[in-house]
Specification:
By secondary structure, the chain is of the alpha+beta class. The protein has ten helices and ten strands. The protein folds into two domains: about 80 residues, no CATH class; about 130 residues, Nucleotidyltransferase, domain 5 (2-Layer Sandwich). Helix content is about 35%, strand content about 20%. The chain binds zinc ion (ZN).
């Protein structure tokens, strides 16, 4: 959904609320507290407040935005919709400074909006199947060799930033999942793979890092050897490596002051955008607000 279309479809708060109500209730509003449909919209047109309902079942009040990332926000929904649309369309990750200028809002407020949107994206549930590539990499920070691959954990040095270890798996012709991990030991890798890959129906391709040995006992597992002609048999992790370079380009381009602690949310955004690049991401995002 492009910006012009969003502005046309959602000229004001009323239009945004009407759209969310259609998505959530299909014309029959239901109380989120007691599931009663014995509800009535409050007439508050004189106060300018709209979209609030009284429930005759449990005597509470609610709005279509109750329980969503829009709950309690003072920022007009139209600006939220534009933010979602622009984030979904951006090839790289948008900077909050740029988006703040576009929306006419303060950078801090926009940064919080973007984090809320990313947190929503992180709820996406993915289970990979078939030929799956897995690989780890390091994101953020400044120094490169902070990880000791033999020990599977960060080198114990004095001060300085340590890069975050992240692991990812990608289904050939399918979706990707990537998460921050505390270390790159076999145990951690196995937990990740078991959670996001349907191991009994899949074959895992990785490099020869011994952290994958544990996984190899649980499922079909092939390792590639870069020194051999691995292209011929298709055993490689090029798809996963392509995703990592997409992630790194997207962030280092726009987040000059990469703040540690938010890696999971940045990863969630990158995965979501990759997984739904062929779909109407804006619509999908709004449809799943209540799930
Ligand atoms: Zn109720």
């Amino acid at each position: 959904m492009d910006l012009i279309k969003i502005m046309e479809m959602f000229p004001d708060q009323e239009a945004c609320i009407a759209y969310l109500e259609r998505l959530r209730w299909q014309g029959s509003p239901e109380c989120p507290h007691c599931e009663s449909t014995h509800v009535k919209q409050r007439n508050e047109s004189d106060t300018g407040r709209i979209g609030r309902y009284n429930c005759h079942g449990c005597r509470s009040t609610f709005k279509v935005t109750s329980g969503t990332i829009f709950h309690g926000t003072k920022i007009p929904l139209q600006k939220w919709f534009v933010a979602i649309g622009l984030m979904a369309n951006a090839k790289k990750s948008l900077s909050s400074c740029q988006l703040a200028r576009d929306l006419g809002l303060k950078q801090k407020a926009v940064w919080r909006m973007m984090m809320a949107i990313r947190a929503e994206m992180s709820k996406d549930n993915v289970l990979l199947q078939g030929i799956v590539e897995a690989d780890e990499t390091y994101i953020g920070g400044k120094r490169k060799k902070d990880y000791d691959k033999e020990a599977g954990e960060p080198r114990k040095r004095g001060r300085g930033t340590v890069k975050d270890a992240v692991i990812g798996a990608i289904e050939r012709g399918g979706k990707v999942v990537a998460k921050l991990i505390p270390d790159i030991t076999g145990k951690t890798i196995l937990e990740f793979i078991k959670r996001f890959v349907k191991t009994e129906d899949s074959e895992l391709y990785t490099d020869q890092y011994r952290g994958y040995n544990e996984v190899g006992k649980e499922m079909a597992h092939e390792t590639m050897n870069r020194s051999e002609k691995w292209e011929a048999d298709g055993i490689h992790t090029n798809t996963m490596e392509g995703f990592w370079s997409f992630v790194k380009r997207a962030w280092y381009g726009s987040h000059h002051h990469y703040s540690t602690g938010y890696t999971p949310l940045y990863l969630a955004e990158a995965c979501y955008k990759y997984n739904y690049r062929e779909t109407n991401m804006f619509d999908k995002f709004l449809r799943e607000l209540w799930e």
